[in-house]
Amino acid sequence: MSDYTYSNTWVNKDALASGVAGKRVSATEFHTEFGLIQTAVNTKADKAAPTFTGTVTIDGSGTLALGTGKVSGTISGGTFS
To answer: Do the Cβ atoms of 37 and 5 come closer than 8 Å?
Structure first.
């Protein structure tokens, strides 16, 4: 999973005076930024019916709710009821 991190400091452009070339936003800057957003979104689990592979770690601060049907796996540590 990838978290989104700005590649451009957009606020610096806002501080520039009108007409200054550096105030313009190029298509390349948008392409880079939207590419980072796409990667972050596409590598996150869906909220509805996510599928996980490998080891899933739950930090213990919430509740794990399992749906009906077959559930199998190994639980190490903690309590499961």
So the answer is: no
